[in-house]
Design a protein that fits this description.
The complex is a heterodimer of chains A (about 200) and B (about 170). With about 200 residues, chain A is an alpha/beta fold. Chain A has one domain (about 5-195): P-loop containing nucleotide triphosphate hydrolases (Rossmann fold). Chain A contains five helices and eight strands, in the order ββαβββαβαβαβα. Chain A has helices at about 25-35, 85-95, 110-125, 150-160, 175-190; strands spanning about 5, 10-20, 45-50, 55-65, 70-80, 100-105, 135-140, 165. In chain A, a hairpin with a 4-residue loop joins β1 (about 5) and β2. In chain A, α2 (about 85-95) crosses α3 (about 110-125). The model of chain A has no long low-confidence stretch (mean pLDDT about 95). With about 170 residues, chain B is of the alpha+beta class. Chain B has one domain (about 10-165): 2-Layer Sandwich (Beta-Lactamase), CATH 3.30.450. Chain B is about 50% helix and about 20% strand. Chain B has helices spanning about 10-30, 55-75, 115-145, 160-165; strands at about 10, 35-40, 45-50, 85, 90-100, 100-110. In chain B, β2 and β3 (about 45-50) form a beta hairpin. The longest helix of chain B is centred in the last third of the chain and has 33 residues, at about 115-145. The radius of gyration of chain B is 18 Å and the shape is globular. Classes of the chains: A alpha/beta (about 200), B alpha+beta (about 170). At the A-B interface, β1, β2, β4, β5 and α2 of A face β1, α1, α2 and α4 of B. The structure holds guanosine-5'-triphosphate and magnesium ion (MG).
Chain lengths: ~200, ~170
Amino acid sequence: MSFINYASREINCKIVYYGPGLCGKTTNLQFIYTKTANEAKGKMISLATETERTLFFDFLPLALGEIRGFKTRFHLYTVPGQVFYDASRKLILKGVDGVVFVADSQEERFDANIESLENLKDNLEEQGFDIEKIPFVIQYNKRDLPNCSSVEELSDLLNPRRVPELEACATTGEGIFETLKAIAKLVLTDLNKGA
Amino acid sequence: MLDPQSSLVMYDEEYQRILVLLEKLLRESNTKVIFLVDKNGQLIAATGETANLDTTSLASLTAGNIAATGGLAKLIGEKEFSILFHEGEKDNIHISIIGGRVILVVIFDQRSSLGLVRLRVKKATNDLAVVFEEMARKTAEETASAGSATSPFAEITDDDIDNLFN
Ligand SMILES: Nc1nc2c(ncn2[C@@H]2O[C@H](COP(=O)(O)OP(=O)(O)OP(=O)(O)O)[C@@H](O)[C@H]2O)c(=O)[nH]1
Ligand SMILES: [Mg+2]
């Protein structure tokens, strides 16, 4: 949950990137890291296997500008997407303020997306969150690949709630900051509703 | 008990009280660095030789560490492991949980000892818990009485968000 520090006039929020294995969660954070000015970012930490698969989490702290005199800090995390790391995924979701679901647009990952979204719903519920209420956006990643499902098809399947949805290519960075802005806005707006 | 689901709100008054307690602990336990982290990995306060430390990373990894060992504890039927200790060649880390939600991290070298750290941490934990209880009560009261009116983030616009990223 968010941490509002009136002493230093800072607000901290936790955003988690969720999605099936190899959908591009880590690549999202890497792109944000490379394109963010040094003074606005901390070190990116990746707890990964030797083959670059996320083992526990990636972590990227961002210190962005001010809103109403408060410095805004976002802590971005990714979960490990591989099915058998479910225990770790649950831990990363603790205290989350907003979720980005990164879907892999490739046709052969259709079922993997559905399975991961179901898993997200279960794990959020276990932490006492409702996927219908938590700030939530969906990113359709890997739009550059030839074997993609159409956005309509993906949207019908993954986004019945019609939350903000964005097309992206994490390797070139297309749609990456748009996704981050969309979730940032929902998270900050949600703070109004009171803790 | 602090509600882990609600926002943590800290005002200057509590921050100063926390700092005083941490500085006292630092002195009395003869340690190098002490910091407090929210269970979600957000740094609350730090004192001691923090100049060359990446406290943001430390905070996140500490929270990850507590989360992982908490998961292990549940698997064997424990509620949580309330104290973790990592021993290095020169520096050691002592990690403990306060009031279920806040993590106290103490870094020390041969100028102190595990026994001394344990003793002083125990005392400080009680004092800090009182401050956090009050913080939680204050937050709950304000949310109940004023509701959304207290939020500095009412009516955020797209321009506000764009400005954040410029
Ligand atoms: N063509 C293409 N490849 C992508 C895109 N996004 C990510 N990739 C590639 O997909 C692979 C996996 O990306 P990661 O970011 O490591 O995936 P992940 O979701 O973090 O995977 P886990 O850590 O296992 O959950 C890498 O080789 C990326 O370069 C994209 O938009 N287009
Ligand atoms: Mg990854």
